[in-house]
Amino acid sequence: MKIQILTLALCCIAPALLPAQNPHNATQPTANSPKPIAESHLKNIRQLTFGGDNAEAYWSPNSQWLTFQSNNAAWGLQCDHIFAMDVKKAANNQAYQPRAISGGKGRTTCSFFMPDGKNIIFASTMSAADTCPPTPNLRQGGKYLWPIYDSYDLYVADLNGKNVKRLTDTPGYDAEAVLSPKGDKILFTSTRSGDLELWTMDLDGKNLKQITFDLGYDGGAFFSPDGSKIVFRASRPKTDAEINEYRELLSQGLVAPTNMEIFVCNVDGSNLRQITNLGKANWAPYFHPSGKKIIFSSNHHSERGYDFQLFMINEDGSGLEQITSESIFNSFPMFSPDGKKLAFSSNRNNGGTRDTNVFVADWVD
């Protein structure tokens, strides 16, 4: 989810608000810009979508499919909806048409494959209205804001967008759901306790358990490869002014995602610890296949605020390494379950437009 220019959805940033780039999409250097780095961890980069805002592309258990959200107007979309694509068929193929999953009603966000690889969980406002919910004013007091629609609930549908089942039916925001590699738990963000906290539940929606409790936005969470830990982004308002602002915005269904850090805890919420202390917006974290490192998106290095690159860091907070340098927006990294590939979203190769597309690359350690 985006900071001074981050709309694709609640869980993501708003690529549509990013400035248009030059035809080669290279980050424009300034006196304070870091020296561009070679993207040596990424080889054989392939583009999978072509047009609109496409993001949060997450792998199927067999490392062959991705589920993602898009507002591509060429597909007749008015707001974000969920799709699934065969990675091999989509690679560099502008004619490829992904499968529609969410059915076209309401607004949807944050999809993830269920353990069987045949069903996808996602959040949707479809029960509140068939139409897209109105977008509130996302720029107030000089800050960029994210909407937190209280009409979001969690649903599961098959790869044909059929057999839709509703998993949550509680007032407030339920979204950002992911699955444990063990195949036994759903992890999601909810306001059901009065704040944006992380919760787990069984695959049928039962056995709910709250695992974070500190004031602030806890979200964008993922499990470690062995399913024993959770990594997530969080805001932590501390001063009276920050706390009052956070609570006032949340009462309006809004959050300001301009100050977030990466945290890790055990799957039950114990041993909570902060991993980054970089300032600005550090988000979209995901565990490296080793379970000992975390890849994430950050603008901590940028004077402009909207230059988001991928970085990797050890779980103890050491060894920060920059992974990308091409374009001014790179985020939503996810390693394939087999550890061979990295899916991510980027503004690269968009012909100078504001389009954000999904890419996949071979990962080189």
Give a brief outline of the structure.
With 365 residues, this protein is mainly beta. It contains two helices and 28 strands.
Which SSEs are present, and which pair or pack?
Blueprint: E1 42-47, E2 54-59, E3 65-70, E4 81-86, H1 87-90, E5 99-100, E6 108-113, E7 119-124, E8 139-140, E9 143-144, E10 146-147, E11 153-158, E12 165-166, E13 174-179, E14 186-190, E15 197-201, E16 209-210, E17 218-223, E18 229-234, H2 240-251, E19 254-255, E20 261-266, E21 273-274, E22 282-287, E23 293-298, E24 309-314, E25 321-322, E26 330-335, E27 341-346, E28 357-363
Antiparallel strand pairs: 1-28, 2-3, 3-4, 4-5, 6-7, 7-11, 8-9, 10-19, 11-12, 13-14, 14-15, 15-16, 17-18, 18-20, 20-21, 22-23, 23-24, 24-25, 26-27, 27-28
Explain this structure to me?
The chain is mainly β and 365 residues long. The protein has one domain: TolB, C-terminal domain (Neuraminidase, 6 Propeller), CATH 2.120.10. Helices cover 4% and strands 36% of the residues. It has helices spanning 87-90, 240-251, and strands at 42-47, 54-59, 65-70, 81-86, 99-100, 108-113, 119-124, 139-140, 143-144, 146-147, 153-158, 165-166, 174-179, 186-190, 197-201, 209-210, 218-223, 229-234, 254-255, 261-266, 273-274, 282-287, 293-298, 309-314, 321-322, 330-335, 341-346, 357-363. The strands form 8 sheets. It has a 4-stranded antiparallel β-sheet with strand order 1-28-27-26, with no helix packed on it. Strands 2-3-4-5 form a 4-stranded antiparallel β-sheet. Strands 6-7-11-12 form a 4-stranded antiparallel β-sheet, with no helix packed on it. The longest helix has 12 residues, at 240-251. It is globular, with a radius of gyration of 19 Å.
